[in-house]
Each structure stands twice: as structure tokens, then as C-alpha cells.
């Protein structure tokens, strides 16, 4: 049996918000192994036009992502929830190895198993080139967004 990853479905407003913030904090660690533990061992993803299945593939995908997307900082916001499903909107900022900055905008649909592990993730994402002076996400290089840092709605995103 898989380890449990609270909060467990069915979600309430409070537990859905906790799940979203937990996912945001995990991804901001930029640790592929750590992040993969939030997903079922046979989790299925669509990320843009890439399809990934299983924790091993998730680790490889995320390792490659964070080799290309440098100084990655992510903010997620709950959009909707019902039962064992959560929808989020998000934005993240990063730069490439040439120093070009981007803000990626997207939406994700998540489905969880009874243990609170994400079994399906569908992500639609668009990248917008930005100037470094247009950045909005500022906190330590790797780690969670501080509690006093504005969220997406507060930033007008």
C-alpha cells in the first residue's frame, strides 16, 4: 500500500488550499525526488505536449525541466475543487542559460487517489518573455514562497 499524503479527499475548501500550497512548496524546492513522492507510483501526466507516466519518469522530467528553467519560482492558486479533484491556476518565473527571463502561465487539473497521492495531472502552460525588471516573484533561490509574499491575485496575475 502507498504512503498517505494528507490532506486526503474528499477535499474541503481548507484542505484543497492546503493541498495546493503543499504542491507549490514542493515544486519550489526544485528537488525532483521530493516532488515525485506526492504522486502515485503510476501517476499519469500531460505537461504541455509531453506525456509522462510513473514516478521514475516524473523525476527525469523534473530534473530536465529545472536544468533548463533556472531560478524557477512558482505561485499556485486554487481555482476549483470537488471530491478528489482540484483545479489550479499558476504562474512561474525562470530564466534560460542565456539570461532570457520568462513568466509561464497555466492551469492544472489534478485527480487524487484515496491516499492523497496525485494519480492524474493535466497541465496547460504558455510562456511569455519578460524583462528581468518585470519580474514579480522574489524570495530565496530555492524554497517555499514566504507567507507574506503576494499571491497571484494580489499581483494582478
Automatic annotation (TrEMBL):
For this protein, the parts annotated as crossing the membrane are: none
* InterPro entries noted in UniProt: DUF1348 (IPR009783), NTF2-like_dom_sf (IPR032710)
**What superkingdom does the record give?**
Bacteria
Spell out the Pfam families in the cross-references: DUF1348
Q: Which PANTHER family match?
A: SLL0781 PROTEIN
Q: What is the protein name for this chain?
A: DUF1348 domain-containing protein
Organism in which the protein naturally occurs: Phyllobacterium sophorae
Amino acid at each position: 500500500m502507498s504512503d498517505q499524503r494528507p490532506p486526503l479527499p474528499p477535499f474541503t475548501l481548507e484542505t484543497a488550499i492546503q493541498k495546493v500550497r503543499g504542491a507549490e512548496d514542493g515544486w519550489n524546492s526544485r528537488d525532483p525526488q521530493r516532488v515525485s513522492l506526492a504522486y502515485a507510483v503510476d501517476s499519469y501526466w500531460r505537461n504541455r505536449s509531453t506525456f509522462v507516466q510513473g514516478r521514475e519518469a516524473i523525476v527525469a522530467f523534473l530534473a530536465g525541466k529545472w536544468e533548463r528553467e533556472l531560478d524557477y519560482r512558482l505561485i499556485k492558486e486554487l481555482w476549483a475543487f470537488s471530491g478528489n479533484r482540484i483545479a489550479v491556476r499558476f504562474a512561474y518565473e525562470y530564466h534560460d542559460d542565456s539570461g532570457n527571463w520568462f513568466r509561464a502561465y497555466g492551469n492544472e487539473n489534478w485527480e487524487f487517489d484515496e491516499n492523497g497521492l496525485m494519480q492524474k495531472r493535466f497541465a496547460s502552460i504558455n510562456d511569455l518573455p519578460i524583462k528581468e525588471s518585470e519580474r514579480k516573484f522574489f524570495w530565496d533561490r530555492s524554497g517555499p514562497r514566504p507567507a507574506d509574499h503576494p499571491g497571484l491575485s494580489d499581483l494582478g496575475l
